[in-house]
Design goal:
heterodimer, A: 344 residues, mainly alpha, MetI-like fold, 2 domains, two-stranded antiparallel sheet, 16 helices, 1% strand, flat, disordered C terminus, B: 369 residues, 4 strands, disordered N terminus
Chain lengths: 344, 369
């Protein structure tokens, strides 16, 4: 009996599942759909409410057990800020996740396939030069351009002369660990120095401040995910390409990338959603001109109290484009990762 | 399958491609993550002050860290520590024996280098310390601090989310009619902004005009509020967090499961293997690396949890649902920039410990295939 249950739980991917398995599976699927959909339904219901219908106990069906009102929708849709925030969010998240996907798939491929042997000594040299430069800038209170250029030149000269003496080497594992280790930085810690940095460069008030921050935040996770997808591809494909005289760029662009389309889609969806929904960096780095939609959601906490109904409308507006993209790209995610590449 | 991996790695086809592929990402990460991190390190050793005509960062040494670990902020960071006794003490000693056993086993392993052995010793010490901290606070009559609360969120959340995600993925790779519609539905929670989810769960957990009011009244919890009970608040945060993260686990696990070679499964069926055996010996080993990766990603990201506790409970009641990032944010808001940076550095150390240990453990599994 237990065996039967276990076997029906771990259903087959090839044969038609047994009856118990079908019943169990559909029960779980329907239950979990309710868990996912009910909060969404509650947002939609709340968006038709006003102050009295919200506070006087729970009402479940608009226009049936309470008098629905479109006033929240009217307020939000007549608000110019909504359109500004929507366009800002759209621009910022698309550009930053595209950048993250391109850079992340390049670096992920490089870590999976190319051998790197950076020398520990040259990294220490880099850090030392950096510290001395920063110390000089802080100590003598001068502008940053000249010391930075001098520092870079001195570093290159020292590196070219000392490089052969360094012996200890790091490898790809160390690089990928270093990259993923930057994910652990709490955003609260790094956002203040970033604020000062962007202020110095003068891009704080443009969209690029958020784009740079978001794409850099998404690069490590893009690299980490893409690397996992790249490693699974048989090396033989690349070997035959090399024998045919292909360069690295050609291999990456024409052979590897088409094979990892599902991985690319999965990574793109994840970065797109995370940048679209990001809140903390937006809180610090966005101005009224570059306000994004999550800021607009939190903006419904007004002096008159929380406008739950307007907030629900903004959340629904935020949800629609992402839903559209996810449905549109879903076939890439769900189509098998390596289907056809080994056999064909 | 990967026999010739080193062969292709060592061919130098293009002179500049290694640099061109990797360096853009490295430079971006250096400028936006590493340099700001050094800036914060400087701040962690200073005290921020307003002086005439501006502000000042005064160097105070390890003052900020001492305050957190031993001084006035200990109750807030580590929790209020009580003596452990009775059954809790026995559990603690059993745990020490268990960890020592694992440690000695890895110290006697000749394949592990000296640096690796030192790493295992440090990791064992931190593990025992954190376990002691959890036992000595909430389980001995004390209270969780922000560190222990965060560890609770991360570990409890990761386990629940992984297993529910895996279960749903197992169900969804079967040949069932209409399963794609369900998959589309399961993505939805991932797409709502976490701030929005925080406010949404505040509406849902409201016991006076939320949708579950009849249910609460039926159970006799008419005046009960999640936000005034420490464990209620923590569990509300974990539930909201799971609601966001299960789709993430699910989406990755499904694509990992569907990428496996169907011919192996066909062969196993013709040899008479049962569904469970196929999962155990074929599917699970295939998806294990992916599982490890998503668990590590979840644990790393989980430590940064801030929007849910800040929106749902504002860290309350008291400090009992405050995560470390939220603690750092509150400290930052009260203009103690040095203290805030010190907390984020402690967070940094804890996460580095967790990810290093987990990656080292996972390396032992991945060598089998």
């Amino acid at each position: 009996m237990i065996n039967l249950f276990i076997n029906s739980l771990f259903g087959s991917t090839l044969k038609r599942p047994s009856l118990i398995s079908i019943i169990f599976s559909y029960t779980m699927l329907i239950f979990w759909s309710l868990v996912c959909l009910f909060p969404l339904y509650w947002i939609i219901v709340t968006s038709f409410k006003t102050l009295p219908t919200y506070t006087n106990g729970p009402f479940y069906l608009p226009f049936y057990d309470f008098e629905g009102s479109l006033s929240a929708w009217e307020t939000i849709l007549n608000d110019n800020e909504t359109y500004v925030a929507f366009l800002n969010s759209l621009f910022i998240s698309f550009v930053s996740s595209t950048i993250a996907l391109i850079l992340g798939s390049m670096a992920g491929y490089a870590i999976a396939r190319i051998t790197y042997r950076p020398k520990l000594g040259s990294i220490i040299l880099f850090i030392l030069t950096l510290f001395i430069t920063v110390y000089i800038i802080l100590q003598f209170n001068i502008s940053w351009e000249l010391p930075t250029i001098c520092g870079i030149i001195i570093f290159i000269i020292l590196l070219s002369s000392l490089n052969t003496r360094f012996k200890t080497q790091l490898n790809n594992e160390d690089i990928s660990f270093w990259i993923i280790s930057t994910r652990v930085l709490p955003p609260v810690t790094i956002v203040l120095p970033i604020y000062v940095l962007f202020q110095q460069i003068g891009i704080l008030k443009s969209h690029w401040s958020l784009i740079i921050a978001y794409s850099t935040g998404a690069i490590p996770i893009a690299i980490w995910l893409m690397k996992e997808f790249f490693v699974k591809i048989p090396v033989e494909l690349e070997e035959s390409a090399i024998i045919d005289g292909a360069t690295r760029y050609r291999i990456w662009w024409s052979i590897i990338l088409p094979l990892v389309k599902p991985g690319l889609a999965a990574t793109y969806i994840i970065t797109l959603i995370s940048t679209w929904n990001e809140y903390l960096f937006a809180l610090f780095l966005s101005t009224s001109k570059t306000q994004t939609l999550p800021m607009h959601v939190a903006g419904q906490l007004t002096v008159k109290g929380t406008q739950w109904w307007s907030m629900s409308v903004v959340i629904i507006i935020m949800l629609i484009p992402v839903l559209f993209i996810a449905v549109f790209l879903q076939r890439f995610v769900l189509s098998g990762l390596l289907s056809g590449s080994v056999k064909g | 399958m990967f026999l010739n991996k080193n062969y292709i790695k060592n061919i130098d086809i293009d002179k500049y491609s290694p640099a061109l592929f990797l360096y853009p990402s490295v430079i971006a990460i250096l400028f936006i993550s590493i340099f700001p991190l050094l800036g914060s390190l400087y701040m962690a050793f200073t005290k921020f002050k307003f002086i005439k005509g501006g502000t000042e960062f005064k160097y105070v040494g390890f003052y900020n860290f001492k305050k957190l670990l031993f001084g006035s902020q200990q109750y807030h960071f580590l929790g209020s520590i009580k003596e452990i006794s009775g059954i809790i003490e026995i559990i603690f000693y059993l745990f020490i024996v268990f960890i020592s056993y694992l440690l000695i086993k890895s110290l006697l392993n000749k394949k592990i280098s000296i640096i690796g052995k030192i790493g295992w010793i440090i990791s064992a010490i931190i593990t025992i310390f954190l376990f002691y901290l959890i036992l000595a606070t909430e389980f001995s009559g004390g209270k969780f601090g922000s560190l222990t609360t965060t560890i609770f969120y991360v570990m409890f959340g990761a386990i629940i989310q992984f297993f529910i995600g895996l279960l749903l993925a197992i169900i969804c790779v079967q040949k069932l009619k209409g399963v794609n519609y369900f998959k589309a539905i399961f993505f939805i929670p991932l797409m709502i902004t976490p701030v929005g989810t925080g406010y949404l769960f505040r509406m849902l957990t409201n016991t006076t005009n939320g949708p579950f009011k009849p249910f609460w009244v039926y159970l006799g919890y008419r005046d009960y509020s999640w936000a005034t009970d420490p464990w209620g608040a923590r569990i509300a945060v974990v539930i909201a967090d799971s609601w966001i993260w299960i789709p993430f686990m699910f989406i990755i696990l499904v694509s990992a499961m569907q990428s496996q070679d169907k011919t192996i499964i066909e062969a196993a069926y013709s040899d008479g293997a049962s569904n469970y055996q196929i999962f155990k010996y074929i599917t699970f080993p295939h998806i294990l690396p992916t599982c490890v990766v998503i668990l590590i990603i979840k644990i790393i990201d989980g430590f940064k949890i801030i929007d849910l506790p800040s929106v749902l409970t504002s860290g309350g009641p008291g400090i009992s649902s405050e995560s470390m990032t939220l603690h750092s944010f509150f400290t930052w808001r009260s203009l103690d920039l040095g203290g805030s940076a010190a907390i984020s550095y402690m967070l940094f150390i804890i996460v580095v410990y967790f990810s290093l240990t987990l990656i080292s453990i996972s390396k032992r599994f991945t060598k089998f295939y």
